[in-house]
Structure prediction request, 499 residues.
Amino acid sequence: MTDRPAKTVYLETMGCQMNVLDSELVLGQLRRAGYCLTDQFKTADLVLLNTCSVRRHAEDKVYSRLGEIGSAQRRSGRRDQIVGVIGCMAERDRAGLLEKCPQVDILCGPNELNQIPKLVLEVTESRKRAIALSDDRSRKIPVEQRSAQLDSLEALDLSRELGPEASRVQAYVRVQRGCDKFCTYCVVPFTRGPERSRPPSHIVSEAKLLVDQGMMEITLLGQTVNSYVHTENGRTVRFAELLEMVAQVPGLERLRFVTSFPADFAEDILCAMRDLPQVCEYLHLPAQSGSNRVLRDMKRQHTVEHYDELIAKAREIVPGINLAGDFIVGFVGETEDEFAESVALVERTQYKNIFVFKYSPRPGTAADRRQVDDVPNAVKRRRNTELLAVQERISLANNGKLIGREVEILVEGYSKAAEKLRRQEEPEEARPGGPQGETLARTSGAPDTRIPRPTRSQLTGRTRGDQIVVYDGPASDIGRLKRVRITAASALTLHGTSV
Prediction:
């Protein structure tokens, strides 16, 4: 008797690091249910899109992909393929997805991902749609039901196993779910529910499990990660203490965290960054705007003056710290003078990099309900381009100062350019599958003329300050700490040679 061929799943991940982690957990469940990963959605038995609702562009991309999937199904005549939309967009746009996309069989919100195998089985047996969405937005769930839901999600996080597609160097660990800030532009509190911090013992156990499987670097994830606070048996643990607890995991080389909320940032976190050798000198601290009027309308809870003081304190306490920031351009009512204040903030902060987004009204948010999106799209695009150009100049200048210096990097694998070259030399059937990712837009710059052309052996890694470094080296370097001398630089990437 021959074994039945394994069913295949195609999983495309869009959006933030939290979605990347969620996809890893979903894949673990499906792998235990007998599925293997493929990078071909046309032939997959199960197609899942893990979605983002932060911007309309992200949702438009999902509808576009669903259109491609539907067209492929009609051309092939397939009726057995199961298609699921999971994550934030499933939670936010249930009605639109069900009405516009008859090819969608499953809708599953981010707080129900532990139900994916059951939903797939329901559709397989009945060929009827299966839906699992949270009622957290109404905040009327009985306490006992909410507790059971959290227990199920905790079990999912703690059940992690690393598949062949997972990184062997770096992993994410969730420290909290949801968000209570309700910034007026943001849909996350409506899609992921209220803020809940995980028990510290669970976080440490998960980190230990990952390090025992070879991980050298862990990034702690939260919507506002520094707001972490958990009380159990009368004892309260805040984020600085959590950093100390995770840093004590034997074998852990590096520890990072994203994303921080300026209004809740305490000095003890900076002291932990300074005093704990494992904690990297990197801080992602979204400002969103350099205008106090805009910040008030965004309900960000911090002022520009407070943000400047926090940046100064970070540089004083953590020498050599690298900073990243987020900015929204074209928010409701933003004037040219207010945009100029954001430019000035970028200039004086001297970030390593920034992420810039054009304001996109999100249904259900306070800004969408109460205010008119009055900044023309052409103005948003211009401001987006201008702010990125400012940061590109800053990044290029700062990276250029590192030429000739040695840095330590954790080697993560082959660079994207090397992977492309290597794939060109492989037969298509030999290419491995993997979760498809989308990263947030970064600055881009013309490469320095001294930058060498990529080769098949070009490896990539990151410094403790999160700078990307590429160099030519043997595959045995992957997963190791290496010293690299910087020889050339672009706005995004440092190029070097192994020391």
About this structure: The two ends are 55 Å apart (CA to CA). The longest strand covers residues 406-414. The CA atoms of residues 274 and 319 lie 8 Å apart.
